[in-house]
Amino acid sequence: MPCIKLEPLGITINVSAKDKLWRSLKHAKVELAATCQGQGICGTCALRVFDGASSLSPMENLEQATLKNVRRDIALYRLTCQTSVLEDGVVFYLDNKADKKLAQIFERLKNRLAPRDIHHPITSELLVQEGNLITQEILERLLSDF
User: The domain 3-143: what is its CATH number?
Assistant: First the structure.
C-alpha cells in the first residue's frame, strides 16, 4: 500500500493504489471538496503536487481539460478524484479550510499528555494510554489504514 505525505500537516498516510486518491483521503478523514462528486469536471479537489508526480497514475484528457478550465497549472496540480497513487514518495500540499482545521487539532494534541485512553476509531486498537505522550506517529496512525 503506497504512502503519501500531506503538507503543511507533515503527516504520512497509507492510500490504496486501487482507488482514486480522493476516496483514500476521505477514508482517512481528510475531507476535500468535490462539487461534481468525483466525476472530474469541477476541479475543486485539485491538490498541488510537491514531489513524486511520476508515482501517480497518468493524467487523462478529462483531467487535463478540467485543470486548464479552472486555471490550474497542469504540471503542478492533480485532481484527487481522477488520480491514483502507484508508489510511495508523493508529497501533496493541502490548502483548504478543512485541512487547516485538522492541522490546528494536530498541533493542539501533538506532544501533550492524553487526557484519556485514545483508541483507533475503526479498529479500536489502543493507540495511547491516558497520561502518555501523544506523538506525531500516533496522530498519523489515526489517519492511516491498517
Answer: 3.10.20.30
